[in-house]
Amino acid sequence: MNSLMLRLKAKELSSDPEFKASLGWYTNWKRRHAISMRAKTTLAQRLPADMEEKVIEFHRFVLRSRQRCSYDPSHILNMDETPMRFELPATRTLEFTGNRTVPILSCGGDKQSFTVVLAVKASGETSTEGNFQRPSSASNPGTTEKAGLCVQEGLDG
To answer: Is residue 144 within 8 Å of residue 152, measured between CB atoms?
Structure first.
């Protein structure tokens, strides 16, 4: 729920044709009902203190391996997997001031995810071919398809 949604709903429910549901009305309404705009909070991951040293050490390892084995730059790939959700619920909502928890409703798609794999070759080329795999379960066996996005709900349809 955001300010625009609330103001539109207030205007819709009002029997007064002159009612404008202005920003001033919205601000005063929040104050009267002890409601504030709240943000979902999360903990951030901390990078290791020796991260720069580890990156340099890994870079040297790759260079030595490439020289020792005569790898062609087009055969060296850097890949990164990024989890994505089928639903991205809002991170801000209206909630009573002082509440310790801020519930955000979703349709359940925030629990279902897929993985995006990004790849680039040492020669500078990007990889355009990829796989999409849906998590498997007894009731929903997954499938993998090459070069594109294919979602299959089950083996029988």
So the answer is: no
Q: How far is CA 22 from CA 13, 18, 26, 28, 85, in A?
A: 14, 11, 6, 10, 35
pLDDT tens sequence for the chain (157 residues)? 678 888 999 999 999 999 999 999 999 999 999 988 777 665 556 788 899 999 999 989 988 888 888 888 888 888 888 877 777 766 677 777 887 777 766 666 666 777 777 888 888 887 655 555 555 444 444 444 443 444 443 343 3
Q: What is the pTM of this model?
A: 0.36
With tokens 């796989």, the residue in question is: 131
Evaluate whether 95 touches 30 at the Cβ level (below 8 Å). no
Question: CA-CA distance, 59 to 69, in Å (whole number)?
Answer: 16
Please give the Cα distance from 51 to 54 (Å, whole number): 5
DSSP SS3 for 79: strand
Yes or no: say if 6 and 68 are a contact pair by the CB < 8 Å rule.
no
